[in-house]
């Protein structure tokens, strides 16, 4: 069945909003009401967009909390002693971070001194912060060393040596490179290791040197960390299992390790072919990999928590046919949600109000002067006119945090929904 079959209202006796309730993204807190108005939780998205203006990011906090609870429940049920650090690089909106810090369900994963200070200033206690950065300068490491209670995972021999000089005798983690990657639908661009060498972490063949550095400075390596890639779903779980298998080779050489941080990477569905990650299966892969080792497992999900909790609201700027292609322009460009253009991740634009009438397949484009500024091609939409509101789904992760002001189109509001 094609996307068009799924989306076009065609079944006899069914109203369009009844029919769209069968689409892949429809869920209890994201669906059309009886009059065809799209709701995220209690929020009428068209009404919000008209009051705040567009473009506007909206994120629903209770969904993020619900997903945190789902992860805790799955790991508890599998008997995995664990902790969660939310990867704030996915969405560092002050409103969201302050809210999450108050919930006490997770710490924060940060990757730069500025992210570290941002997380602390939003209310995350220092001892609930995990720092794993890359290409760290001497200045970066000096700044990190001022915060002794956070968990620091140097990702190179060089960084390990620098922290050893600054804080001899301390406990540290190390980021390892498992030499094997994982990513949404095998997408190479989302994999952090495997095939060619990557910059992320210390490879197995250099662990002896890491131990030597630790010995020189009296450091105790109590943690290993890795993040092999982003966006994995059930079909990639066997690959996750292989990554975890490799990590045990590192553990065998590092007897003081008490915690394994397996990074983030848990994905969400992007189109009708994707199924939600089965957290129970995921948790059992982890439980099996580390059974009997008496370890705490840390995870640092970003996308899984925030991506499908957020939406980018845009307005239609024009509609025009070019060489038989129906173009729909939006007042938001790829600079506000870069993943579709950069990583070829599918984007799902939907009308905030579903009007009756025939559906049309559109190529949706943004307002930035770049050829790659294209949201979706040949995408079925219910009737839509200039000035209508279009919601871009899955914009809660790596959209606002990666945005740029390219073409001076970076002006945008962010709204946190509390119900
Ligand atoms: C070290 C590290 N941890 C966690 C994450 C979060 O990944 P995701 O949002 O895919 O869960 C990333 C993403 O780049 C990362 O680099």
List the keywords.
419 residues; alpha/beta; Lyase, Ornithine Decarboxylase, Chain A, domain 1; TIM Barrel; binds pyridoxal-5'-phosphate
Give your account of this protein's structure.
The protein is α/β, with parallel strands linked by helices and 419 residues long. The chain has two domains: 3-60 and 309-417, Lyase, Ornithine Decarboxylase, Chain A, domain 1 (Beta Barrel), CATH 2.40.37.10; 61-306, TIM Barrel (Alpha-Beta Barrel). It is built from 13 helices and 19 strands. It has helices at 3-7, 16-20, 45-52, 61-77, 94-103, 113-121, 138-145, 157-166, 207-217, 237-251, 279-290, 303-306, 339-343; strands at 30-32, 38-40, 43-44, 56-60, 82-87, 107-110, 129-131, 151-152, 171-175, 220-225, 259-261, 296-299, 310-322, 325-330, 349-351, 360-365, 374-381, 389-392, 413-417. Helix 8 runs parallel beside helix 9 and helix 10 runs parallel beside helix 11. The longest helix has 17 residues, at 61-77. It binds pyridoxal-5'-phosphate. Pyridoxal-5'-phosphate (PLP) binds next to helix 12. Pyridoxal-5'-phosphate binds at residues 87, 89-90, 109, 132, 227, 230, 263-266, 300-304.
């Amino acid at each position: 069945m094609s996307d068009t079959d799924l989306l076009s209202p065609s079944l006899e006796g069914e109203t369009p909003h009844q029919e769209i309730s069968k689409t892949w993204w429809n869920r209890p807190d994201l669906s059309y009401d009886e009059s065809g108005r799209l709701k995220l939780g209690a929020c009428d998205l068209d009404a919000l967009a008209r009051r705040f203006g567009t473009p506007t990011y909206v994120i629903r906090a209770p969904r993020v909390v619900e997903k945190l609870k789902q992860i805790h429940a799955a790991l508890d049920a599998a008997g995995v002693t664990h902790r969660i650090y939310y990867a704030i690089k996915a969405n560092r909106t002050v409103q969201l971070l302050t809210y999450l810090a108050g919930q006490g369900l997770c710490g924060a994963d940060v990757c730069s001194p500025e992210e570290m200070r941002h997380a602390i200033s939003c209310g995350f206690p220092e001892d609930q912060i995990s720092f794993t950065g890359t290409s760290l300068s001497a200045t970066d490491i000096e700044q990190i060393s001022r915060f002794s209670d956070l968990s620091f995972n140097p990702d190179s021999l060089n960084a390990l040596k620098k922290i050893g000089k600054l804080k001899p005798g301390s406990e540290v983690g190390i980021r390892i490179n498992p030499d094997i990657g994982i990513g949404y639908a095998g997408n190479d661009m989302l994999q952090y290791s495997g095939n060619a060498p990557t910059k992320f972490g210390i490879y197995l063949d250099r662990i002896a040197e890491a131990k030597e550095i630790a010995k020189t400075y009296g450091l105790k390596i109590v943690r290993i960390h890795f993040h092999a890639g982003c966006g994995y779903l059930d079909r990639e779980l066997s690959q996750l299992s292989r990554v975890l298998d490799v990590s045990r080779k590192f553990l065998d050489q590092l007897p003081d390790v008490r915690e394994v941080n397996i990074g983030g990477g848990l994905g969400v569905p992007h189109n009708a072919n994707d199924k939600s990650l089965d957290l129970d299966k995921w948790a059992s892969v982890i439980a099996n990999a580390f059974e009997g080792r008496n370890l705490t497992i840390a995870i640092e999900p970003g996308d899984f928590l925030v991506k499908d909790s957020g939406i980018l609201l845009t307005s239609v700027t024009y509609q025009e046919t070019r060489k038989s292609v129906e173009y729909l322009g939006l007042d938001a460009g790829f600079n506000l949600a870069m993943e579709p253009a950069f990583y070829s991740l599918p984007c799902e634009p939907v009308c905030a109000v579903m009007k009756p009438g025939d559906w049309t397949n559109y190529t949706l484009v943004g307002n930035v002067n770049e050829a790659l500024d294209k949201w979706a091609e040949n995408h079925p939409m219910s009737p839509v006119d200039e000035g209508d509101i279009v919601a871009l789904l899955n914009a809660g992760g790596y959209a606002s945090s990666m945005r740029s002001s390219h073409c001076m189109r970076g002006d945008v509001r962010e709204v946190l929904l509390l119900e």
